[in-house]
């Protein structure tokens, strides 16, 4: 397959995936800044790396080519002028507006070997690491006491590679992230597809880019077939972003329908894939709490309009009927996270029991801790491959969150 991106389903046999092994960025988490950096707890790095290595090896053992974000990023910055441009853009995206600090940071980063520089940008730069010359005229903000420890914030969410960008068909979205703590992450993929030898000659279409006003994140983007997508209208993906992306996707690809699924806007249900994932031709995990008392779920069906750039929209509430129609299936099997037990359902959804990664039709990778959901999947005919996630899960993401599929076989 002579293409660096090819995703026409959630379940086709996975051939190539992008991961990020957790690094020093997790050791720059402290209790005072967890909320701003979107964490509930501080993972133990050594254990998180062990768990991530098991996850990556499971994928390799099933024939998947595993690529790593920091390596691709470093290989994309081989040219000195590209490296300097990247640092300038990263500092600007970090809102490091003080000229003296920015100049010092730029020199500090560019003096490093490229791989070390990429890792340092990911990990963050502490104030104790660099000396800024504040001699001469001082600005008011420099004179104030400021205990904040970083000149450049860490990026602890990077191991959730699903969110900053998402492959769709032969193109991708390079996303504007909702929270400022994650906005810089998508800059890595922008440089990778522009400058990396594996991608730069392929004229890859970008269905949505990070300069857009409205936020979109990859955890809300599910490719159900070569013609149908599901996208969550969530805390982190806006209706405006979905409609803009839909117009471009319909005009430049084979996709003909987008199911925009409204989910509660909360930290627990941050993305569609935390409450709903596709795991086989007609099987899906679902967290019952996203449906109303009658089992209904608000779904807006987007299709190409009558004129170029126009998007037609209809509203439906029966998710089973919507999926049957969109996928041409007589039967849709919605498997509830945690089964019928309200306590197990809430606990295992919080621990990403619905956040499954399909590596082939009916073959899924899950966290071992979600034993109720895992057993239920097996009873529905799924092959379940369990990986440890006690530390990785502290970042509120599971196997699907931790992976950006680049190539899958067609189904």
Fraction of residues in helices? 25-40%
**Strand line-up in the sheet with most strands:** 8-9-10-13-14
- Average pLDDT across residues? 92
* Strand segment count: 19
User: Helix and strand string, N-terminal first?
Assistant: EHEHHHHEHEEEHEEEHEEEEEHEHEEHEE
Strand residue content = 15-25%
The largest β sheet comes out as: 5 strands, mixed
Runs in which pLDDT lies below 50 for 5 or more consecutive residues are: none
SS field, number of helical segments: 11
Account of the 3D structure:
The chain is of the alpha/beta class and 411 residues long. The chain contains 11 helices and 19 strands. The protein has a 5-stranded mixed β-sheet. The protein has a 3-stranded mixed β-sheet with strand order 2-1-19. Helix 8 links the parallel strand 9 and strand 10. Helix 2 crosses helix 7 and helix 3 packs antiparallel against helix 4. The protein starts with 13 loop residues before the first strand and ends with a strand.
